[in-house]
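Good morning C.,

I know you're traveling, so I'll keep this short. The sequence:
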Amino acid sequence: MGACTVAAAWPAFAAAPVILVVGDSLSAEYGLKRGTGWVSLLQQRLADEKPQVRVVNASISGDTTSGGRSRIGALLAQHRPTHVIIELGANDALRGLPLTMTETNLSAMAQAARDAGARVLLAGMRLPPNYGRDYGERFMELYQRVAARHDAGLVPFFLAGVADVAEAPRYFQADRIHPNEQAQPRLLANVWPELNKLLPK
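The tokens, ready to paste straight into the viewer:
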């Protein structure tokens, strides 16, 4: 494919798209063999379908939305992404942090990415029933509000088909918190349709 053809295929960008993933252990291949996590699977899929796109995984196990917010500026400056996937918030809930703080941090990250010219995709999360129905619903809804506020894409539930099915235990590592290798294609399947809507055709 010649240079002119490539340029015509990606009219919205001066350079090939870069997808920056800012997440926690669910995206950082915690407990997994390197190259088997959903972000690695995304890069493999893009290599086949959209080879111009590059993926940068800046996920850190244990990270919170406060950690992501503190890092987002430097990451945007370093990698100059055209798209940013934010997969954070679960550790906030595990630590009992205020929902208003989680929402404020996610909103600040989304705004920073938009200000840098990137499209944003939020990976929404839900909490186990033992957190209480009211808290769980308010946690889920904050992702919807942030996405609407910043015209961002939204994966309604990042762990759909993994944590909410009868056979859920087969998809988790021994700690019952982190998805295993078998679950990773399902996670990618949850992200891909929403991400693909944001990518140049």
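Safe travels,
E.
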